């Protein structure tokens, strides 16, 4: 029960990103500052965690060995993930972005062939290319249909061009996040823990955030005190608290695929938390019945996908091990 509660708490703190980004946009804050300030504020907190755990030097050593890969995959995994999400906040409400963001589940599934699975056989490690889990992908059509309903309902209130400005950046982010993070995990292998990797990627993505900050300063000036404070909340809530809670939850059940799937499925509730937060804090109009049906389909689809994909991964490992032993 504790891992599920941690997962739910993590989803709630993750949802703060979508709520605060919508709030900053409503108050006239520029998306450039919303994006860059979050990662600039995350560094001291993550640095403190890593230093207290005595893991800073190994991280710096790894980053020095693979400078280009760290810069590339951090730009993709963090830069092309968060900057587009902040840009989209100018054209879509936070709960809609949170719902569309769940497309990352499908994107992650489609990216599977780009990665390898480690299989330990008779004391040896064999690299096995992953396959797209077909059954999980079929269930993902529920998520896709839910997102389609959300966007079609949104289209009744905005122009097609505005809809695309709120949709396309989120889809780019949905592919960039799993691609950059998984590639970075391949580079690190098992030499770094999650906190080291997140700090390293934040540091490696600094050139982008500094460039965006300069652009923001030249075009809109410095961010307001309110936007600075709100970005700090996002950094602490989503960048630190939510990440730590989710890592703790998954670590508790890492050897039990069904429980791990249940913990991951809790992240689907980000959509509900974002909707509730915007409804009370920003007084947005409550979604239509069509949008609510779409949200329900996204949540149910995510839960089914999580359980199915873990089941297929377990079967694939067993089949590969049997094949190698034959």
Q: What is this structure's SSE topology?
A:
Layout: H1 2-26, H2 31-52, H3 56-65, H4 67-88, H5 94-101, H6 104-110, E1 116-121, E2 124-129, H7 134-155, H8 160-188, H9 194-204, H10 206-220, H11 225-252, H12 257-265, H13 270-281, H14 289-325
Antiparallel strand pairs: 1-2
Give structural notes.
- This protein is 79% helix and 4% strand.
- By secondary structure, it is mainly α.
- It has one domain (2-325).
- A two-stranded antiparallel ribbon has the order 1-2.
- Strand 1 and strand 2 (124-129) form a beta hairpin.
- Helix 1 (2-26) packs antiparallel against helix 11 (225-252), helix 4 packs antiparallel against helix 8 (160-188) and helix 6 (104-110) runs antiparallel to helix 7.
- It is globular, with a radius of gyration of 20 Å.
- The chain starts with a helix and ends with a helix.
- The model is unreliable at 320-326 (pLDDT under 50).
Structural class: mainly alpha
Give the number of helices.
14
Ends apart, CA distance between termini = 40 Å
The side-by-side strand order for the widest beta sheet comes to 1-2
Order of helices and strands: HHHHHHEEHHHHHHHH
Number of domains: 1
Mean pLDDT: 84
Radius of gyration: 20 Å
Tell me the strand percentage band: under 5%
What can be said about this structure in brief?
Keywords: Membrane, Transmembrane, Transmembrane helix. By secondary structure, the protein is mainly alpha-helical.
